[in-house]
């Protein structure tokens, strides 16, 4: 379903086996060094979502090859690029993966993803607990917005005019995810992006 121009939601895009394989990959990527951690914002607040990056490390508001602790960021694997091409088309060449982990209380405030130097789409894959994804407008963090439930296995592609729309995650529904190896529950979101760097 096209939620807005360029914003396409494909429910149930990943098979249960693919979901389980991605969860296992996220578990590996989450290990130190350069593993899962919470990001501290410039105002000192700590994000409730924890994240791990592949390819390029995001820290507000830029991408670097090393984490804030000087650890080299893990490589972006070829197979993940192939998955991205299945989602966004043959010419898509992502070089960043940003994995977000949401525990029962985690939220993501309204923001836009404007730190990539490329207008290529963002591919989003949801795993585990269902969430409410708030898809806003391109002007400000307020209304109008559309609330969409994202379920485990769903694909979202944000391209064209929706690439710079404000968006966030207002809540998750603990205990709603399928048995895909996310022990302890929660929600994972993997975004694939094109850095436009180098
Ligand atoms: C999430 N992640 O569920 C979301 C899904 C992030 C983030 O927002 O920055 O890691 S990705 C949603 C997204 C990406 C790019 C553009 C738009 C939405 N959009 O225009 O709505 O953890
Ligand atoms: Fe975002």
What is the strand and helix layout of this fold?
Layout: E1 2-4, E2 7-10, H1 16-29, E3 37-40, E4 46-54, E5 57-59, E6 62-64, H2 78-88, E7 96-102, E8 108-111, E9 122-128, E10 131-135, E11 146-150, E12 155-158, E13 167-172, E14 187-193
Antiparallel strand pairs: 1-2, 2-12, 3-4, 4-7, 5-6, 7-14, 8-13, 9-12, 9-14, 10-11, 10-13
The structure holds N-(carboxycarbonyl)-S-(3-nitrobenzyl)-L-cysteine and fe (iii) ion.
Residues 111, 113, 167 line the site of fe (iii) ion (FE).
Plain-language structure description:
The chain is mainly beta. The protein has helices at about 15-30, 80-90; strands at about 1-5, 5-10, 35-40, 45-55, 55-60, 60-65, 95-100, 110, 120-130, 130-135, 145-150, 155-160, 165-170, 185-195. It has one domain (about 1-195): Sandwich (Jelly Rolls), CATH 2.60.120.590. It has two helices and 14 strands; from the N terminus they run E-E-H-E-E-E-E-H-E-E-E-E-E-E-E-E. The strands form three sheets. It has an eight-stranded antiparallel beta sheet, with helices on one face. A four-stranded antiparallel beta sheet has the order 8-13-10-11, with no helix packed on it. It has a two-stranded antiparallel ribbon with strand order 5-6. The longest helix has 14 residues, at about 15-30. N-(carboxycarbonyl)-S-(3-nitrobenzyl)-L-cysteine binds next to strand 7, strand 9, strand 13 and strand 14.
